[in-house]
Amino acid sequence: MRRRQFICMAASAAFLPRAAAAEGTALVVHKDPYCGCCGAWASAYEAAGFVVTIRNEDDMDMVKAQLKVPNEVHGCHTAIVDGYYLEGHVPLEAAERLLKERPPIAGLAVAGMPKGSLGMGTDPNASYDVMAVPRDGSKPVVYLAVRPS
């Protein structure tokens, strides 16, 4: 490829729609077979361009233990994307930022099932934190604070 072609292609990539950042990225979602909010969350990721595979699990605690997800950040479902885990109702914005920045962490987590988080309905007053979970087992830190606008 010629240098000029490469530069033009790289510059035009910056103007692609938001979903293009996720286009074709594989996302494996481990969930309880009877949970509806997990399906809604996965559908939002699929609509954003992720290639979603859903795995219904009989023992979610085992999945979380294998990935070393700390108990204090356990959420509803656990997804794997490009070597990171997404625990619970992690918003698209946080996952896209994670995949762009590629920090040296194990994954992102939204503890519990916050009202208004992705997959949990709409709530203009939604307020919760997306936590970055270090690989070394140290305490998770806030990666993204979701607050009412």
Mean pLDDT: 86
| Helical proportion, percent range | 25-40%
C-alpha-based Rg, rounded: 16 Å
Low-confidence stretches: 1-20
CATH class: Alpha Beta
Derived structural class: alpha/beta
State the separation between the terminal residues, measured CA to CA: 45 Å
CATH architecture: 3-Layer(aba) Sandwich
Tell me the number of helical segments per DSSP (H or I, 4 or more residues long): 4
SS elements, strand count: 7
- Biggest sheet layout: 7 strands, mixed
Order of helices and strands: HEHEHEEHEEE
Task: Outline the structure in words.
This protein has four helices and seven strands. With 149 residues, the protein is an alpha/beta fold. The protein has a single domain, classed as Glutaredoxin (3-Layer(aba) Sandwich), CATH 3.40.30. The chain has a seven-stranded mixed beta sheet with strand order 2-1-3-4-5-6-7, sandwiched between helices. β6 and β7 form a beta hairpin. The N terminus is likely disordered.
Sum up the structure in keywords.
149 residues, alpha/beta, seven-stranded mixed beta sheet, 27% helix, disordered N terminus
In a few lines, what is going on in this structure?
The protein has 149 residues and is an alpha/beta fold.
Helix-strand blueprint:
Blueprint: H1 3-13, E1 26-31, H2 36-47, E2 51-56, H3 60-66, E3 78-81, E4 84-88, H4 92-101, E5 105-110, E6 128-134, E7 141-146
Parallel strand pairs: 1-2, 4-5
Antiparallel strand pairs: 1-3, 3-4, 5-6, 6-7
